[in-house]
Every structure is written in C-alpha cells, then in structure tokens.
Amino acid sequence: MPLSWNEVKDRALKFSKEWADASNEIADSQPFLVEFFNVFGISRRKVASFEHPVKKLDEHEGYIDLLWKGQLLIEMKSRGKDLIKAYQQAKDYIQGLREFEIPQYILVSDFEIFKLYNLEEGNITEFKLPEFVNNVQHFGFIAGYQKKSYKEQDPVNIKAAEMMGRLHDKLKAIGYEGHVLELYLVRLLFCLFADDTTIFEKELFLDFIRERTSEDGSDLAPRMSEFFYILNTPPEKRLKNLDEQLSAFPYINGKLFDENIPPASFDTEMRHILLDCCSLDWSKISPAIFGSMFQSVMNPKERRNLGGHYTSEKNILKLIKPLFLDDLWEEFRKVKSSKNKLLDFHRNLASLKFLDPACGCGNFLVITYRELRLLELEILRTLHKQGEAFLSIESIVWLNVDMMYGIELEEFPARIAEVAMWLIDHQMNMAVSEELGQYFVRLPLKRSANITVGNSLQTDWENIVPREKLSYILGNPPFGGKKEQNTGQKVDMDKVFEGVKGAGVLDYVTAWYIKAAQYIQNSKIKVAFVSTNSISQGEQVGILWSELFNHYKIKIHFAHRTFKWGNEARGNAAVHVVIIGFANFDTDNKRIFEYENIKGEPHQKRAKNINSYLVDGSNIIVVPIFWTVIENK
User: Are the C-beta atoms of 497 and 512 separated by less than 8 Å?
Assistant: First the structure.
C-alpha cells in the first residue's frame, strides 16, 4: 500500500542527510539506490534489477545500472562526472530493450545532482540532493501515485485499443468468441489498469505473466483461470499453500470475476501481445474514451475508424456544464466561506443521481462522475484549510459510483461501462489520496454503477431509478434517420409515438425525447441530449415539438445550435448536431450557444425563450404536413 506523501517527504529528508557524502559510483550506487526506493516504500528487489545486460548498437554487451522494465532506467556516475554523457549512454541502452521493457523515465545522477527525463512528455526535472524533499512528487510513479491529465486525444488510448484488438482477433480465430471472449477482455482491461494504478502492487500482473507462465504460452490459459478465481476469493478463503505471487493479489469482488468461464488458449505470439499490453502505462488511459474504443475493436469495420466513434470529453462537457456543472460550481463559490453551508452542499452533491438511458460504454456517466469528484475534491480541500479534521479519507469521500444509472441494449458495452466507472473512481481516489496525504482505495468493490441491459425504449425508466430520486437525464442516444432505422427500431418508434400523426419521418433519437418528457412530468428533473440537428429544422420540428410543447409542457433551458460533433481522431466522420437541455418547468436562466464556425467554439447569449428552432423567440411551429402554423402560448 503506498505511503502517504507526508511519510515520503519525511523519508526523503532523512535520505538526503544520510547520503550527503556519497560520491563513488562503484562503491555507493547500489546501496544508494536501494535506499532511494525505500523512500517511497518500495523494495528495489521486487521491481528492478541491477546490472541488467543489454546488447548495444555496436553489438557489444552493456550493463544498465538499474532497470525497472517499462518504467525507469537509472545510470549512476561518480560525483562531478558528465551527466549529459550518462543520459546518452542510457539512450543507447534503450535501443537494445524489447518494447515492453522500454522505460518511461530515465534518471541520471552523480549523487549530488539528479536529472529525471520523462521520455513520453519530453520534459526534464533537475535538482540537487538537499532539494529532493521538494521534488518527490516527480517520482509519484514509484510510490504508486500518478497524476492524470485529461487530453481530448491521447495516443496511448488508441495504441491500447489496437493492442487489445490484436488479442481479440487471435482469440476469436481459435474459436474463443461471443460472450466469453467479451468478458475475458473486459477482465483483462481491469487487470491491466489495476497493475499501473495501485489497485495491484506495481506490475504484479505483468510479473505474474512473465515469471509464472511459459514462453510458448502453453500454460497461460490455465494460469489465467486460476488468477481470475483468486481475484474473486477473499484472502481468508484462499488455500494456505497458495503460490505467494497469486496470494499477493487483492480480493476484487464487484461481480466482475464471478462467472466461471471456459479457459482460453494462448501461444507464443499471443503471450507476447499480452506482455506488450502490460508494457503500456495504463494509468494514462482515459476510462471515458477508452471504453468506446475498446468496444470498437470488436468490430473490424469500426476498427478501421478507431477513435472516430467515441465522444470527445470536450463535447461531453458542452452538455454537462450548462445542464448542472456550472450551477454546482456557482453554488460552491457562494457557500465555501461557511463551513456548515459547505457541509450541507456536500451532502446534497452526494445525493444527486444521474441517468443515461442510452449509455453505451458509459462515457457520459464517466465524465459526469469525474467532474463531480473534482468538485468534491475542492470541497474537501476547502474544509481541510478551514481546519476540518477527519480520521480517514473514506469517512469524508461521500460520492460513489452507484449514483450513476444507465440503460444499454447490448451486454458488452454495459459491462465496459461498469468497469470504466470503477476505473475513474479509482483515479479520483488517487487524486484525493495525493491531496490529503492518506492512501485511499475502495477494495473489495462493494458498489457499482447501476447499468441495466435492455431496450431503453421498451423499458419503464421508473423501474431503473424512481423518478423522485433522480436529478438529471443526459446522453447521446442513437441518431437513426428514418431511412437508417432497422425493423426493431421502427417497432420502438411505433410504440413511443403511438397515435402521433406523421411520426414516421422522425429520427430515432426523438423517441428518447418523448420517453424523457413522459418520465419527468411534475418533477424538477433536468434533461439534455445530443441530437441530429434535423430535429430542430424542416419537417420533423412540427411533429416532435408540437408533442413536447403542447402535450408535455416542455421548456427548453439551453441549446447548442448546430456544430460538428466528434473529435480529431483519424477517419472521424462529420456529424452535425445540436444539444438541447429541457425540463417540465421554466427558468429565467435560458442560454443559447451559437457557432460562427461549426468546428469552432460557441458564443453564449441569454434568451427570454428558446423555441423549437433553437432561436430566441415565441414557440411558433410550422407543420409541413398541413403547411399551417401552430403557436404555443
């Protein structure tokens, strides 16, 4: 279990004093590095090796002072020696490493000066030994802490999805397919992430595969079956003579490893693919966008457009900020100076519940939860500064994944959504741990997001989450123009729009508007959906909005007018969309977001009323079937 940052800093101070006079590469480097790792509560022997042999480009044998495969390479020199040459020597050594062994960091030191090179981000941190205590955060990857930066596009997500796609293809080619293959891959996804984010001890999963399975992969499948069984077994129920490497894995629970599935089968190449997957830094994976990418590798047609089908975080924020996030932050700013009011605000925040009735891999739920946890972190930071004491982080972190609800037609994305919620929860727990200096992890998993597998349009949402408990509905339902709808979707439309004239021309997404409007009657629930822009122009307007305005008394609270939905991933298809936020009650805070360039940023303006054409004006609707005008007073 990682040390708190306070304890790490305390050890760093002692280390700096103890090794102030060290200077000799041969005599001092190995004991120096052993104690360096101890500063972070890590045994060097468990993660890294001294004098790792490697073949240089000139074919001569070289020896790396210390190598932590996939993470860190260290070259030590005697005091005063040239560290630029030491760095070049380290770079030469990397050329002889296998892909999964290539480190993210290079550290060179002459005992007095430290230079840490982050090879992925291209930056350098330099400091002297007495300054070590002020620079320990740069070595958070050793202690098990990892800062997460959320980028709209991160190549590691695409690379990870491509690697998982290769493994998927190999398993499917041997006849391991369907539900068992999907579940197998979702389990691997969790384990790969756990290996880099302190759910498991650092690289415990990688070491298990590398050290406990044969090079030819012949025994990998039965070892994995045993491994899955162990993750689902509490420590007190495990065999007393269990392999110590297996015994080191924590009890996960969460029902992820409940089902007993048939073993797969591996060969040398498949084992290498899995090791290559382990070589990536999974702490950098975004659960929000990786889920959709991961799902897309299952479909060869979608894989050609890998990254083109997931929803970017930036666009998700366009929906959730005006729906609830902006208001919550504004309320926080108003109450943060009063401890009692801030505690009440925190309780209210923890009581919120969210439903995505077409959740897919859960990206809207994941981003929503992440943003709520960031707000909670700011609450805890403020309370801490005000002198609020706490015994454990667990007692003050009140938000949990079970505040999120989703409905998804297919089982595989639903299971990915559940796992993605656990992953983002753990990332946020690590952020709180780093902020407050106390390690916090939720194991075994006791709560999960409430993801229901079923047809959202044929399901009573009251059975998913009672209306009086729900706060917000949000998401990106399938668009489906009338020509693209399959037989099942047409049946859904007939059911939802029963008795509504002309409904046959409507896009599939409009059915979610009607379902939501029915569900939120006489409530304070707010709704926002991403939709094709055709529902706010042309023949669809009169049919859909006459029903919403006149029958269900819907009021539009905010709207993003037409913009390009998606991201800059390769092969990304251009889809022109709107975002519409609405409720069964009115508001004085109506906003329209307009785009001068559909690829650009919006300009916000206030509105007295937002009509079905998403402009500030009265609710006048042209009904093309009869070419008449209806005005809703």
Answer: no
Residue listed under structure tokens 């002020």? 134
Q: Is 151 in contact with 120 (CB distance < 8 Å)?
A: no
Whole-Å CA distances, 442 to 399, 405, 428, 445: 12, 20, 11, 6
Alpha-carbon distance of 324 to 370, in angstroms, equals 14
To which residue do tokens 């089908």 refer? 309
The whole-angstrom separation of Cα 503 and Cα 485 is 13
How does pLDDT run across 422-481, given as a tens digit for each residue? 999 998 998 888 888 788 889 899 999 999 999 999 999 999 999 999 999 999 999 888
Task: Give 131-164 pLDDT, tens digit per residue.
Answer: 998 888 889 888 766 543 434 445 667 778 888 8
pLDDT tens digit sequence for 226-247: 999 999 999 999 999 998 889 9
* Residue 62 · residue 19 · CB < 8 Å: no
Q: Tokens representing 395?
A: 């007692």
- 199 three-state secondary structure: coil
Go through the chain and tell me how many residues it has.
633
390 contacts 396 by C-beta, under 8 angstroms: yes
> Residue 353 is encoded by which pair of tokens?
């519940």
Whole-angstrom CA distances from 315 to 187, 577, 601, 602 are: 29, 11, 11, 11
CATH of domain 5-143: 3.90.1570
Each residue's pLDDT tens digit, 289-311 = 777 667 666 665 554 444 444 56
Q: List Cβ neighbours of 491 (8 Å cut-off, separation of 6 or more).
A: none
Provide the b/e sequence for 557-569 (b: ≥16 CB within 10 Å).
bbbbbbbbbbbeb
Give the count of alpha carbons within 13 A of 242, CB side only.
Answer: 20
Q: Report the distance separating Cα 93 and Cα 242, nearest Å.
A: 38
Sorting pLDDT into bands at 50, 70 and 90, what band is 633? very low
* Amino acid present at 66: L
Beta strands of 510-551 (E only): which ranges? 526-532
Closest CA to 121 of 99, 104, 146: 104
- Provide the residue ranges of all domains of the chain, joining segments of one domain with +: 5-143, 155-303, 311-453, 477-633
**What pTM, to 2 d.p., does this model score?**
0.75
**Sign of the CA dihedral with 272 first, then 150, 434, and 32 last:** positive
User: Hey, how many other C-beta atoms are within 10 angstroms of the C-beta on 369?
Assistant: 25
Residues 6+ apart with CB under 8 A from 574: 564, 566
pLDDT score recorded for residue 45: 87
Helical spans, DSSP H, in 437-503: 487-496
45 CB contacts (<8 Å, ≥6 apart)?
none
pLDDT, mean of residues 194-205: 85
Phi and psi for 568 in degrees, rounded to 5?
Answer: -100, 15
CA distances from 68 to 50, 129, 400, 567, 591 (A): 9, 22, 34, 36, 53
User: What is the longest distance spanned by two Cα atoms in the chain?
Assistant: 93
Main-chain dihedrals φ then ψ at residue 19, nearest 5 degrees: -110, 20
> Could you tell me the two tokens for 600?
């650009």
Lookup result for tokens 């009692």: 340
Rounded to 10 degrees, the C-alpha dihedral 210/215/216/217 comes to: -10
Q: Is 53 helix (H, G, I), strand (E, B) or coil?
A: strand
Q: State phi, psi for 291 to the nearest 5 degrees.
A: -55, -45
Give the separation between CA 625 and CA 620, rounded to whole angstroms.
15
C-alpha dihedral sign at 5, 7, 13, 19: negative
